[in-house]
Design brief:
Number of domains: 1
Largest sheet: 3 strands, antiparallel
Low-confidence stretches: none
Number of helices: 3
Shape: elongated
Number of strands: 5
Order of helices and strands: HHHEEEEE
Strand order of the largest sheet: 1-4-5
Mean pLDDT: 92
Distance between the termini: 75 Å
Structural class: alpha+beta
């Protein structure tokens, strides 16, 4: 009888370990998905040249177009609505919070080191660019892991 009890406890423990491993794997894939989405959004934003300044020979990013493009790419890649809330059927269950969306333009001298001590981030830009920091909360699968929140950072420069 005691062997049956030990066997059942062992099965429960193995199932718990399997759930933990599966949750960790899904969390890692979710982190990669979030990082790729933020990198794509920052890159799309960095490509929004200010055509008026470009006619004058100044290479610059159009801030309004860059913000709109970054948000559009972020929302499409993470399946979010216009308020950054997850769409029905999306993997994400909570709002994606854009913490920083900074445009570094020609008014700075390059190379320019962007630092954000609040989010422990530093990047050196050699030309105008965009820095984006987004907070994502991992929707746990099995509730074996504790809550996971990422502050994912991305940066891109204007390609010309």
């Amino acid at each position: 009888m005691y062997k049956l009890l030990v066997y059942l406890l062992l099965i429960g423990f193995v199932m718990l370990l399997h759930g933990l491993q599966a949750d960790e794997e899904v969390a890692l894939q979710a982190l990669f998905q979030g990082k790729h989405a933020i990198n794509r959004a920052a890159h799309a934003a960095a490509q929004q040249t200010d055509k008026i300044k470009l006619k004058e020979g100044i290479v610059s990013i159009d801030a309004d177009a860059a913000r709109a493009s970054a948000m559009l790419y972020l929302q499409r890649n993470l399946r979010l609505d216009t308020a950054n809330e997850p769409l029905v059927g999306s993997f994400w269950k909570t709002r994606a919070e854009v913490l920083r969306l900074d445009i570094v333009n020609e008014d700075r001298s390059f190379p320019y080191t962007y630092t954000s001590p609040e989010y422990d981030y530093s990047v050196t830009l050699t030309k105008p660019g965009v820095v984006m920091i987004v907070r994502l909360v991992y929707p746990r699968t099995y509730n074996v892991l504790g809550p996971i929140t990422w502050e994912i950072k991305g940066a891109a420069e204007l390609v010309y």
